[in-house]
Structures are given as C-alpha cells and as structure tokens.
Write a structure and sequence with these properties.
A two-stranded antiparallel sheet has the order 1-4. It has a two-stranded antiparallel ribbon with strand order 2-3. By secondary structure, the chain is mainly α. The longest helix has 29 residues. The chain folds into 3 domains: 236 residues, Growth Hormone, Chain: A (Up-down Bundle), CATH 1.20.1250; 63 residues, no CATH class; 244 residues, MFS general substrate transporter like domains (Growth Hormone, Chain: A, Up-down Bundle). It has 24 helices and 4 strands.
Length: 561
C-alpha cells in the first residue's frame, strides 16, 4: 500500500480537489506569471535623446530641431546621438550652433509612444547608467536562484509547504511595493533581490500541495491547467502594460491582488504527504477525513487511518545524500550534461523573454505573440517524448531551435518574419525545457531526484542572468540570434551521449541509475513502437500501454514538483 491507495478510498478527484484547483492552483499560477513577468516591461529603455531648450522660440519641427541640435549617432540602431548635443544658443529666433559636442545639459526627451514611464525614464537610468536596468534583472534572477534552494529546503525540513507559500506571498507583496518608492538604486536592488526570493515558492508550494491531493491519473490534467493559467498570465502581462503604460501603475495593479491569497489561510491544507514524513499523524488524518467528507465518501475512522499511515512510515526508504552520486561515473556524466543543457536553454529562453523590440512600436503585441507560442510547447513535448522517444524529442528541439535562430539572424529586416521565427524558437526551446526536466526525472534515482532538478534550475537561472547583456550588446540586432544559434547547437551536441529512457521504470537506487540505458545502443532510434525490444517491459498490448501510461504520469508529477 502507498499513499495513493488511501487517496483513492477518500476520492482522488472529487469536489475537494476540484475546488482547490479552481480557488488556489489556477489563480495562483495566473497571478505569479502576471506579476513576475512585469520586470520585462519595467526595464524597457525607450528611445531617448538630449533635451535642448529653445525650439519653442523657433518654427522648427521636432525632427528639424533634432537634426540641428544633435550630432549623428555612431550606433547602428539610431540616427541621433543619445547622450550628446551641440552647444546651442537662440537669440530672437536665430539659432547659433557650436559644433562642439557636449553631454546632455538639460535632461532628456523620450519616445513615449508605448510607455508613459519605465524604470529607466523615471529614475534617469540613461547613458552611462543605461545598464542599471539589466543589473536589476540580474539581481532579480539571483534572488530566484537563492530562493529556489532556500525556501523549499526550509519547507521540506522545518515548517511545511503551506507556511512557506504564505511567507513567499508576503515577501513578494512587501518588497514589490517598497520597490516602487525606493529612493536609492541600492535599495532598489535589495528589494529586487528579496522579491526574487519568492518567485518559485509562491507558485511551487500550492502546486505541490494540490497535485499531491489528486489521483495519479488526473495529475497530467492538473499540470496542464496550471500551465495554461501560467501562459494566460504571461499574455495578460502584455495587455496590462498596454492599458497602463506607467510602470508604477501596472506594477501596483499586478501586485496588490496578491493579498487576496491570504484568504486561503483556512482553506488551503498542509500537504498530507509532508505531514506523514514528519510523523504528524493527527494533522494528516484531519486532512484525509476532510477530503472524504467533502467528496461524499465514507469517512474513515481515525484509528483505521492511523494504522495505514504508520505502516507507510515503516516502509519509508533510507535517506541518501547528493554526495553519493560522485561514486557513479555515468550519473556524474549525465548530471554534467543536463546542467550544460539547462544553462543553454535558460540563456536562450531569457533572450527571448526580453526580446520585445522586434516590433519596436508595439512591444506588448510582440510579447503577447511570443508568450502565446508557449501554450502548445508542452503538448508537443508530451506527444514527441511519448511516441518518438526522449532522445528524438530533445534532439529535434535543439536542432530546430538552431535552424530558426540561423534564419532569424539572416532575416532581421522583415519584422513580422523575424517575430514568427522568434516565436518558433520559443516554442522549441520551451519544449526543450519540458524534455530536460523529464530527463531529470528519469535519469536520476529517487533519493536525489528533486535535488538534481533544483541544481539544474539554479545553474540555469545563474546562466540566464547573462540574457539582458546579450540582448543589449552593441554588436547589432543579429548578435543575439547568433548567440542563440550557437547555444542551441551546443545543447544538441552535448545531449548525444544521453541514453533513451522511454519505457524504462524510474530508477529507485543509485546503482539502477548508473546502469540506466545499458542494452540500448545510442545508434538506434528507440521509440514508442519498438522500445520493448530493448528492455524488459510487459509485452501484451494492454499491460504495456498501462505500464507506460503509469510511468508517464509518475514522471510528469516528478517534473512539476
């Protein structure tokens, strides 16, 4: 017996679970995506140039005045210098121009077509301070990386997932609100880092709680609903910033509703599986009985459930540590491969996330299109991994991303063609994320599986901090696409030694993980229709299909956790 057997007795997908999906999982997924992706629009640096007073004393147009007062730009992306002006004097409508270049003497003018204010225009992060916005993004990603390790560790070892969720919501609310009135750049970075700490936990904790309450057969549906909600949140980020073009206004509207999640204090339970691991049996029994009562099932007695829970505790596996992997060559090699893959994927994804200037006059539409293309990525990822195999899925993801990046680098003049290519790169690279974490779930043993996924995420986030500097590098508009092409090609090459894991059971021990894939030649294409030739699995149609469905369900659950 395992915990899922107890769950089936009290209802694995009844009113209780559906209510938690509707009131917790879906709105939290939507809110987290909406709130976290605002940074992309906050850090936009619109076109700007020196404000040179005196035009009002002449009959010159804005463009004529700029031609007269600003030196030509050496930057391939602009026609006028951003940070220099000529020395101008206006007397009785007569303009005298001294060709000596000066730094901006009277502030700046901005292109306010898309935004009333961004962080850069509001705080004057321009010219020699233009990189401040990129630093802000990097510090936020650093907070994400630290929070990904720290808060889940505290949750698992000490206070539980429910408590950490409310702590994370409080952290995000407080520091995002303080950030809007931060008087200094240092305080801004501190708030940005602290707000970043909450990113993973304010979504991951309720996700894990809800998924662990649901029957394994319905977990893929639950994960899909969470993913769709997340994608819709990203798309609505573009809509919100279009309706409210001032960074303080759209940040306020996207942040304050997070306070409503404190209303879940009484209704969101602690994870009963976590309570079981901590031997808090009475609290675990209360949750189980409440599930049965809400679902209209027979409520089991306290003693009956207590016997089952204590039986499960006795059969729990011996805890092993991450350091044990260094005794196994193949596990170490696979870990190195997935870390390199993850780093390549996260940098490419970060470049695409920030790449909202393909349509410079309609950045919201630009972001909406790129976000929308994430929606089919997991569906395509599941279909290709299930039928074509894991190796074919990851190889095609990187290969197609490489080809599209190359085509994008060679088609930067036609903006709609470029946007279409960027959207397909995002589809393939998001699909690669899905396959990567599926591989993480299938390559590594149970005792360290979650830790390995955390390590890959942390290395990926650290690598992703380079994205804003690639996006703003002064090497021309094609530079980032060449970088994406090279990284996609590196990802393709390093994944060649990975074994095919389709149809194999999840490894429970380090020895099983180290021997994974033996008897499966790397030169053979192993897929849904022939994998049973290379491994011992049920061969009868129904049994084999059932076994594969159960394995895929377990794998998807592991990924999303």
């Amino acid at each position: 017996m395992d915990f899922d057997d107890i769950l089936k007795e009290v209802g694995g997908f009844g009113k209780y679970q559906k209510w938690k999906i509707a009131t917790a999982l879906i709105p939290i997924s939507f809110y987290t995506a909406l709130q976290n992706n605002l940074l992309v629009f906050q850090m936009v640096v619109p076109s700007y140039w020196c404000h040179v007073p005196g035009r009002e004393s002449t009959d010159l147009t804005v463009d004529q005045w700029k031609n007269l007062t600003l030196p030509p730009s050496l930057d391939v992306n602009g026609s006028f210098a951003k940070c220099h002006q000529y020395n101008i004097s206006v007397t009785d409508g007569i303009v005298e121009v001294d060709p000596m270049k000066l730094s901006c003497q009277s502030g700046y003018d901005y292109d306010r077509t898309s935004y009333a204010e961004t962080l850069s225009t509001y705080y004057g992060w321009l010219c020699d301070k233009e990189a401040y916005a990129s630093h802000s993004f990097t510090v936020n990603v650093a907070g994400n990386a630290v929070g990904t390790v720290l808060l889940p560790y505290i949750a698992d070892k000490f206070v539980g997932r429910r408590a950490i969720f409310f702590v994370a919501i409080g952290i995000a609310l407080f520091f995002n609100l303080v950030l809007m009135v931060a008087p200094t750049y240092t305080l801004h970075l501190v708030c940005r880092f602290c707000a970043g700490l909450a990113f993973q936990s304010n979504w991951q904790m309720p996700y894990v709680i809800v998924v662990e309450l649901i029957d394994p057969e319905r977990r893929p549906l639950t994960s899909f609903l969470a993913f769709v909600s997340w994608t819709m949140g990203m798309c609505c980020t573009a809509l919100l910033t279009w309706l409210l073009p001032h960074w303080i206004h759209f940040t306020l509207v996207a942040t304050v509703p997070g306070a409503l999640f404190f209303l879940l204090w009484r209704s969101l339970p602690e994870s009963p599986r976590w309570l079981l691991t901590m031997e808090r049996y009475n609290e675990c029994i209360d949750v189980i009985q409440q599930i049965a009562k809400t679902n209209g099932e027979t409520v089991p007695s306290k003693n009956e459930v207590m016997v089952k829970l204590k039986s499960l505790s006795k059969t729990a596996e011996k805890e092993e540590t991450i350091m044990d992997i260094f005794s196994y060559t193949n596990i170490c090699l696979n870990l190195l491969i997935v870390i390199i893959q993850g780093s390549c994927i996260y940098i490419v994804y970060g470049c695409l996330l920030l790449n909202i200037n393909i349509l410079p006059q309609n950045q919201s539409l630009n972001y909406f299109v790129l976000s929308l293309f994430e929606l089919p990525s997991n569906v395509v990822g599941w279909l290709t991994t299930h039928y074509l195999g894991r190796r074919a899925a990851i190889h095609t993801s990187f290969l197609l991303s490489t080809i599209c990046s190359l085509m994008a680098a060679m088609n930067t003049r036609n903006k709609w063609v470029l946007l279409s290519l960027a959207a397909f790169i995002k589809l393939f690279i998001t699909k690669a994320i899905y396959v990567l974490f599926l591989y993480c779930a299938e390559l590594f043993p149970t005792p360290v599986r979650s830790i390995i996924i955390g390590i890959v995420v942390v290395f990926g986030l650290i690598s992703m901090s380079a994205a804003p500097y690639i996006d703003t590098a002064a090497h021309g508009v094609t530079f980032q696409y060449w970088v994406m092409m090279i990284l996609s090609l590196v990802g393709f090459l390093v994944c060649l030694p990975l074994p095919e894991t389709v149809g194999l059971p999840l490894p429970q021990t380090f020895e099983e993980a180290n021997n994974l894939g033996k008897g499966r030649p790397l030169t053979r294409w192993i897929h849904h229709w022939n994998y049973n030739r290379y491994t011992e699995v049920p061969t009868s149609g129904e049994g084999s299909e059932k076994n594969e469905r159960e394995e895929d369900t377990t794998r998807l659950d592991e990924i999303m956790k």
